[in-house]
Sequence to fold (928 residues):
Amino acid sequence: MKGSIGTTGLIMNEPLLWEKGREGRCGFSLPRRDVESVPLDRELIREKLEFPDLSEIDIVRHFTRLSQWNFSVDTGMYPLGSCTMKYSPKTNERQAGREGFVIAHPLLPSGLSQGALRIMFELQQYLAEITGMDAVTLQPAAGAQGELTGMLIIHAFHKMKGSQRSKIIVPDTAHGTNPASASLCGYRSVPVKSNEQGILSAESIAEIMDEDTAGIMITNPNTLGFFEENTGEIAEIVHADGGLVYCDGANMNAVMGIVDMGRIGIDLMHLNLHKTFSTPHGGGGPGSGPVAVTKELEPFLPVPRVVKERDKYSLIEDCPESIGRVAAFHGNFGVMIKAYSYIRSMGPENLKRASQFAVLNANYIKESLKGYLHLPYDRPCMHECIFSDKDQKPAKVTTLDMAKRLMDYGFHPPTVYFPLVVHGAIMIEPTETESKDEIDQFVRAFRAVVNEARQNPDSLYNAPNKCKVKRLDEVAAARRPCLTG
Amino acid sequence: MRYLPHTSEEISRMLQVVGVDDLGDLFSTIPEDCRLNADLNLPEALTEWELNDHMDALSRDVAVAPDYRIFLGAGSYEHFIPASVSHLLARSEFVTSYTPYQPEMSQGTLQAIYEYQTLAARLMGMDIATASHYDGATALAESLLMAIRITKQKRVAVSRLIHPLYRQVVKTYFEPTGFEVLELGYLENGTTDITALDDIDELAAVAVQSPNFFGCIENLQDIGEKVHDKKALFIATFTEALAYGLLKSPGAQGADIAGGEGQSLGISCSFGGPALGMLASKKKFMRSLPGRLVGKTQDLEGNRGFVLTLATREQHIRREKATSNICTNNSLCALAAVMYMSTLGGTGIRELACLNRDKAEYLKKGLKEAGCIIPFDTPTFNEFVFRFPAGGEDAYSRLLEKKIVPGLSLDTYYPELAGHYLLCVTETKSVDDMDALIREFKS
Fold:
């Protein structure tokens, strides 16, 4: 394709650290020794630690070269469905990098950490407002830990009511973490299928809900990119049998300022600060997965809780119904600052506009690629749209082939083979921070790949061609695992 | 708004393609009774410059050095972080990428994590290490659950000298499982008392921290042998990973699993998070490990490359049968740690660890001479327990007024040690800082 942004740059080879090290080098300015050495029992001392010795420039070049083998949001469009790869504003990094936050010790007396506690307290309030819930904990370190925290709260709730339950309803469109989180709490997942519109019907829940079911985990908007329109009715059914409604809020980016989760019967939900609230993904963490709950479930939130009394912020631990701690300290404070900074920079109107543009972008892509790729559910979507490789079957081209080929055009592929309900799924989430120009380029690239699949499938089987490495053998990696050098 | 690139003209053209009249129409599938009826009640947007002022003021409302002399450790340690590490870690390509599901576009993160796994395994003296976890507390909880999966026993024993907050996290994770957590007491010398093990059967694992919460170095070797006699797995945990730059590693002393906190390795305290959960094991337990792993492989042309591997253990494939619900590591923190470990090198890490210990010994000696009580005589690393001299019980608040935080009170966590404090000294404390504290008791 003419004008494609994908090209091969100046990419250096770089050995492993220990292939590069030379004994006797050091990259560290050792602090001045102003005390005497005190002997230690030889029995306690280890053998020499086999770390490579490198100078500062060795290390700087090593990691700079490695960084250039990575694609990132700052490099280009990263349309991974359900991952919300929006732009991470740079001012957030500046705020989180302030000395007072960076070296703050988590066990400082409250009186000496008012600034940090105030950020946490206010962020809790903002997230409660955005979700329509009553109380928030910021402690969970990631979305999956938020889910686990939610399940622990549900478990504690039923325990307090005096009747423990054994099952939990998990739709087929749920993230894989949902059933895994539920089983950590001893719950058996009861799967339920979405209907022909890609959403849950109230009838299907009514059929399986009973008094041994602790609740339901609904991802809303769901992983097919649709709003679960029947949540209100489903919540009534679940509540009638004494169950709770958990919402996986990973896709909250579609509905900020638009949907009131409290109003539709959600009892508790998690958010991903690294998705909706722009904190960077860091190549796989650290994230942050706050949990928001109704007034009724507030007593179960993890300790310590951040509270405010007469302009003073403090941490309280005396909460007898609490599920306890899920982190050693207060959660990923460094991530919270970035989300706080984002919300303060955006303000209420821009948060709503962000959701509107996220949905506009996804629908625009859906309409632009319709006719090129099979669209299993042709109806208006929220933040993401899902295609499949059904139309490429005759040419024996798969979703994976097209994903790899997109790399040569300078784009990170969408999420592939998820959700499982769509065979060969291609899940595209552009987010609001991609402009029409970027999206048009992406659409042109994807159309070109689809044309190649028809005319010259060979060019796809061996893709990518322009990355640092060719297609990697993941099967061999799992068969003969080599995890250390 | 500078993060939103849409012009009015583009919005109209896009709406036209989508086939709706205005932005509101995009949400037509959302029933009226699900809508938020009012505007979000949040503060108005700040400019970048207003935000700077606001955040600057908040960040000044936290006590930090050099204004304050803070002798707090207890699971979060202030160490010097080289500018090169901070600078490299801030590279956008590392910061704004996703979990490396598409390895051809993520070789930077993948090779770095492979290097982290290697150096982390060497530090802990283990065969293999995971790509990292949330923090030390959850790494310990996951280690214990892993031992239960391996041994199929339902009971674990943990030392009371494991960080009290870690034990609280373990309790939270175990509460709904029906598995039992027993606690082992401690001896007069400040190390774990394992005699109770004689009367406990059907044990999956025993977990001991070294250096323990009191800073004392445990004899892991002896404990490990006894644990293995009971046919249980031996888990070594830690809060101060730098100690293993000097001390015998968990692996060298017979640990089957090592799981603890790596924040000391180039990650700032940041009010407790993000941190670095480190988890390592013997090779034979590889397929029972929770969390992400990076492995070496080849591309179509035989070139070396790296991928996420053994995913069949994980939640996105195995769903409810997964080894854990974790779907990520703490990648950027692991990256900080590998940058830091390679910056120090084998020689540097030992020298730095020695300096930490020597400084702590200097303060210990000084406080002792000034009349403070050091209750445990076991060798320590960079933390130790002390009590103010008789008659000096009000010293803590007096010192706070002088902008010195003399450690963490043990009153809540160990009521039997009321009046005792846990002190920490790293290389960031100068002789002047330590003398300032000692002087308070001499006068």
About this structure: Chain A touches chain B through 199 residues (CB under 8 Å). Residues 284 and 477 of chain A are 20 Å apart (CA to CA). The mean pLDDT of chain A is 96.
